[in-house]
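Minutes, project huddle
Topic: does the predicted pose make sense with zinc ion bound?
PN asked that the exact inputs be recorded in the minutes so nobody has to dig through chat later. Recorded below.
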Amino acid sequence: MMKLYKDLAGEIRKGRSKIGDFKAKKWANNTYLVSHPYSHPSVMDPFMAVHLHDTDVVRVFGDKIQLFTGGWKTVTTKERINRVLFQSELDYYVCQEKSLWYVQRARNDRHLRYPFAEGITIHEDGHITGAAPASASKKNEKLLKKIKKYAEGYVVALKAGKIPLPSGGDCWGCYMADKNGKPAFGNDHFIEHLEEGYFVPSLLMNAFKDRGCGSLYFQLATEAMRGKPPDKERFGGLLYETAERSIRRFLKKGLGLPS
Ligand SMILES: [Zn+2]
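Predicted holo structure (tokens), as shared on screen:
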């Protein structure tokens, strides 16, 4: 039985919160330790969870630890995972290199690392199962390059006045996004846009919304789409640089890459 499992069970016992039916203890911002002390329909064994927003980002069983992101490969997710791994007797942490995540040995062998996958499992004896295949890294690298190319191409088209205003003729998934820019029907259409080089007008606005950009950006983008590019000296850099960065970030996030 891992010491970490007992330690977390002990901490949670002192808690006064609940997540669903389960006893919980506040651990950090938006984060709870949650006890799942008996069998759950979806899993075999009892476990202690680190629960961030709506996701168990770490599940600690008696003999293994499982890691998840719920599609949010953010700095916060990584920090929570590493915080609990640091408390454990297992010698691993999650690191990021070139926008990819790895589960890596901390002290013994820095070269030993495994591409991250949902549910990747570190066992009590230190072996890893459920890592993404090495080809997944290659696949992600290709995807990152496509995103970069797409964002650059988008801005070139925007500068050239080739992107019209958002309309019902846009990709429906992009057009029907919610007020935070989250697309209506999942994110699969993003892949198609990358493949086809289809610069969806609504996508830029969604990327701005997702990033919490102020109204100035929407105004500048709207003017550029109307064929009145912003005053180069004053706002050109502001619009185009922010557009490129926002699109990259938005697509990475939407496609489950660290953003
Ligand atoms: Zn779309």
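Observations noted during the meeting:
- The pocket of zinc ion is lined by residues 171, 173-174, 189, 193, 200 (CB under 6 Å).
- Residues 158 and 224 are 7 Å apart (CA to CA).
No decisions taken; revisit at the next huddle.
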